[in-house]
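Pilot study result, target chain (111 residues):
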Amino acid sequence: NEVTTLRRHQESVHQGDYLKWVKNNNFMSMLPKDAKRRREEAATDQQSSINSHLKPRVPNERIIQYTDTLFREAATQWLIDTDQIYFPLEALEHPAFKNMVDIAARTTNGV
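Predicted structure:
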């Protein structure tokens, strides 16, 4: 092929001048070695399997649905952990406190 022969001649005899012209004119080098390198890079860039695109799935946080029993256990544990000696357990039975919990329990996305 005549074009290939000219490119080989350009690469062996005028490579420096050609590469300078390529750089100055924002042109892609068509020298045989450069073209071969691009083909090899393109071959390695191709997707060989899907594994490199997969990511581990983060499990969704499981929110335990509200129950009076669960709330009472959590409130009791809070009283114990924070040493609430001035907040008697009977306060959990007060109608205003129950009303507040009932309102909070109606939420759909947590409190």
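One observation from the pilot: The chain has a mean pLDDT of 77. A full batch analysis is planned for the follow-on phase.
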